[in-house]
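hey can u check if this looks right to u? its 368 residues, i copy pasted from the old doc so theres a chance i mangled smth
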Amino acid sequence: MAKKSKETKKIVRRDAKAQDVFGAFTKSLLEQREWEPYHFYKREDHRTFEWLITMLIAEMEGAGWDKVSLASYRPNKNTRALVDDAFRALHTIYEKKYIIPNITGVRWALSDAALSQDQLERLGYHLLAKLKAYIGKAKRQSDLHGVYRLVPPPKRRSPRDRSELPDPAAPAWTRANRQRSSKVQITTRVSPKTKALSLEAAEAREISHSQWLNEAIVRQLLAEGYDTALEKAFRPRPDIEPLKRRPQRPKRALPEPQEPAYVSANRADKIISLRIDPELAREIDRAREEDEDRSAWFRTAVNTFLYVREAKLPKPLSQRPRLSVPVSLSFEPPVMFVVGHQVKDSGLTLSEWLRRVARWYIWYRWHG
């Protein structure tokens, strides 16, 4: 008789996907706005979203939201996702409904969205941290017209099934199945003089060419009376100094400018590869320190040989050893220049000169 498989009870995991913080937060604010309007600020022109964030930060710190009695303050992936949903709901309710809640309204909305008191405290603590990070970044990165451009990113669209694609037979990355972009590209042809002048104007303002063209198009549309069709954040502000592009570091002068920077002629150091016999490798391993590799030991040996005036290369071995252990070295150009003269005066190859320097340094460490 075949055994029946043991049935396991599926436990629904309460994570960021199962918990709808965005919907609960939004619904709570809408209901409060209808029944308890004193939990909200009145609509004024100066009360922007950044003003709301600044007021909430001051009220949350005054109420002690930054002093949580929980053991762990570090947010996990689930907590970060829930806080992002609450922040996105706060921005959406402001932009679409122009509802400006105070700390009481936000507290009630978080209470309706949280599953427990511990989670409520956690969400409040990390929401305050996110508001501080947002307003700090917004102050540092205002756009070129002086208007805040940092809008919470929309919730990432869930992956589409094969049946939902416009062309199910083709891969998802093809043009037919690719999702539309939020931006469009304009293709035009101008004279070389116009391009040169626009590049010069953008360079004079220390902004990119793309930003300069975007601002020129916006100004022309505003001049022709198309004000209502433009985004509010793209309207120029003459009283605000535009955000300038970060100055680029000057490129270092290369010995061979026409060659790439990674070629041997343009490298800051010179790499040398040679082979040594196993007996010399064992002696080097016994002589070097624990935190010193063979390459570092070789560099120390060469520098010491060049520094000691009475240093002389030892005589060649009676029989030629078997060279089977590879070693890679790197020297700075000034050192390599002196080494090149030493090798030329000795009449040896560079590899043989380095092997004799290694034998000399082993003797020098014990008898020098």
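The beta strands are 270-276, 325-331.
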